[in-house]
Fold:
Amino acid sequence: MLCAGIRFLASAVPSRLVHVSVTGAGLMDPAAIIYSPAIRIDYNVHTLERITVADNLADGVLIMRNDVYAGARLAFSDVRDNGGTGVAVRGSFFELYDCRLTANRRAGFEYNPSYTADEALQVRAGIRDPLVFDRSMTIHLGDENRRWVVTPRRFVNETWTYDLEVSVNALYKVVVDVIDYNPETGVELVTVYDSRRRSIRPNTLHWTIDDDMVDFPVVSQLTHLTIRWRMSGVSSGRLAFVLRSSKFRQFVFLFVFVIIIVNILYRYTSFIRQKRQKHKAKKKKQSMCK
Structure:
C-alpha cells in the first residue's frame, strides 16, 4: 500500500524520529500522479537518528529550512533505492553524520538554497498561530522562545511603514530568519535594524531583504532588534519569518579565552621561575668554586 509519507509542518514542536523505517511512500495524489518526499520537514528542529528510508517513489528526505541553534542533523541512517534524491536540503546549518546514501535514482545528497513560490506557500500554510504583522508593534520573547511572523494579503494600493520591535531578556539575543518574501522590493521593502525603534539612525547596522539574504539568519548585538516593513503598492502576503531568542554565548567564549590566557601566563611564569632558579644555582656553584 502506497502513502504520502511523513511531514513535519513549520510550527511542529521538536520531535525525535529514532529506529523508524519509511518504505513505499511518496504518492501524494494518485489521480494527478503527484509525488511527495517520504519525509518532509518544513522547519527543522527535530532529531533524526537510526532511520531507514528506502524504496520510496520520490525523494527520501526533504528539509526546507533548519533552525540555526537546533543542531539539525541526520545520523546513523540508511537512505537507499529511492525514486528521487536521497537527502535534499534547502537551508544551511544541517549535518549528515555516519549515513549511507546508496542507489538513489538521482543524487545521494543535494543542497539547493532556492525554492519555488508554491513550495514557500506550503511552508507558510504549516505555520500555526502566527503573529500578524499588520501595524507597528512591540513584542518580547521569553528565554529560548520562538515566534512566527507573517504579513496579511491585501488587494488595494497602500503606502505606509510599519515597525516591529523585538526584545529579549539580558544575556539573550534576537535571531531573525526569513522563510519567504516578495522579490518585488520596490513594492515591499523589509529592513532589519540592530537597534530599538527609537534609536534607529542612518548609520545603524542593518540588513535589507533581498540584498543581504546571504547574511540571514541575523543576530542582534544586544537585546533589541527592529524589523521595518515599507509598503508602496499591494501587500502580497508572502513575507514570513521566524524570531528566536538565543542565549548570549559570548560569555562562554570569553571564559574559555580567559582560561587559555591564564594557562599561558602560568606556563610562562613557571618557565621564568625555573630559569631564574637555574641561574641562581649556577651562580651559587660558581661562587663556591672560587
